[in-house]
Structure formats: C-alpha cells, structure tokens
Give the backbone structure.
Amino acid sequence: MAYKLIVTEQADMLISNLTGYLLFKLNNIDAAKHLLDELESVYLRLKENPYQFSQSKDNYLFGKGYREALLPEMNYRIVFRIEETQVYIVGVFHDREDYGFKVKWVSTY
C-alpha cells in the first residue's frame, strides 16, 4: 500500500530553519545537502511503510499515536503521525531538542 506524505507547514518551516542554519550560520553546504538527501530517503520509506518506524519515546506523543524516524547518518528525527493512508510530518528535530514539548504546543495534528 502506498501512503500519501503530507509535510505540515510547521515541519516545512523547521526544515527551512535547519537548512538555513547549516547554509548561512555554519556555511556548510555539504551538511545542508546531506540533510535534504537523508530526508528524501526517509520520506520514500515512509511512503512505502510508515509502520516500520518506532512509536515515539515521548510519553505524551506516544499516547497521541506519533512515531519517529531517525535520519540514519545524522542526529535528527522526523516526528509523524499516520491517519489511514496519510502520513503527516509534524517536525524534524535535532536529538538534543525537547521535541516532545515543541510538538505538544504547536502541532494541530
């Protein structure tokens, strides 16, 4: 079964901020490209089978049905939720961030 991937406005803004930070603050074009490549790779896997990724480790997000996909070669995680045949990407966060808190207070999904 193919799933439809929906990147929320919040997630899109977070990705833009991350790539902007890598490009303009750290001046690291390779890291920004690598991040986008890794995101695309995980997006393809999410479209095929989002259930291959584990449920969130955050208790609140776990209770709301959120799951997490780690970017294999980076310290980032994609937080998403599955509704029927749609996968909602709600955020991309660095492992050091309190992503559970951020998703709780800004997400409407």
Observations:
- The chain has a mean pLDDT of 89.
